[in-house]
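Q: Predict the assembly, please.
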Amino acid sequence: MKYSITVLSQQYAVDRQGKEQYEKYIQRLKKTLDDSEQLQDIEARIVELLAEMQINPGDKVERQHIINVIKQLGGPQSFEDRPIVDTAQHQRTLLMQIMGVILGGTALLVTIFTITAIIGRGSEETFPGTFAEWIYALAGLATILFFVALCAVTAVGLVKTHFTQAKKQAIKVLGRGFVISFVMIFIGALYIAVTN
Amino acid sequence: MKKSNNSEEYAEQLAIQMRKGLLAFCVLTACDGEPLYTNEIVKRFHASGMAVIEGTIYALLSRLQKDGLLSHTWKESEQGPPRKYYQITEFGKEVKAAMQIHIDGLQNTLDALRKGVL
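A: Predicted assembly structure:
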């Protein structure tokens, strides 16, 4: 069976192993790159490298040629635009941010419950009332402070992430945080509306 | 593993980190003139004694372009498919000039340290 690969609209004959290897490489590059024009540029370079090996469109490409092209260009990991920071530390920062927004959202929800409970007290009731109510009010205050602190930690983390060039990740984390917080607020508001 | 090997590996890791930081400056310097395509940039680096993997350059060119430090144009090639040529922008020139001050400062510090002035 005859196999072929298409590199920037140019067809080359290839054996099965070579085809598999090339396609695997290109697939991994596609996952790594976020710009199709960049892939086009790389494919243009592959055509050029093959031409340097005296292989023109329509000619047979041996597996070794593909290995040489990959060696020249570098593995898919070399195409990654990694920030110049410790990856493990970066991961930890991101984890902290995600935890921050989740806990922040939870804290906000509890805060809403607390404030609603205080506002919703009957006029005949005095405030503060029982010991339990005092605890309830203090818990509300602590929750608000907790929420503010978490927001600050999250903001600092996001700024740090931004300055380590991982803007996309920062936007993702921010997006997740907003979604989680809004969903929790919505659930809380819905609960209050139903119970009242 | 021998101690000498460890020191070599350690130095190699430090050199990799250093190269990463300097690579952007080198790309800006290479593209500050006539427009170049990736292979020409790599060839210039090799000619200057700086070993780089082409893939690293693609990623860096993409980032510098996104950040507005480089611009590109596609040009037809006699040897094959069109090539993407990169050139430094005004903003890129400003960044390069600012980086040059930092590098010069670092060079002066290193020279002074070697001479035992500091």
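Chain A is about 70% helix and 5% strand. The mean pLDDT of chain A is 74.
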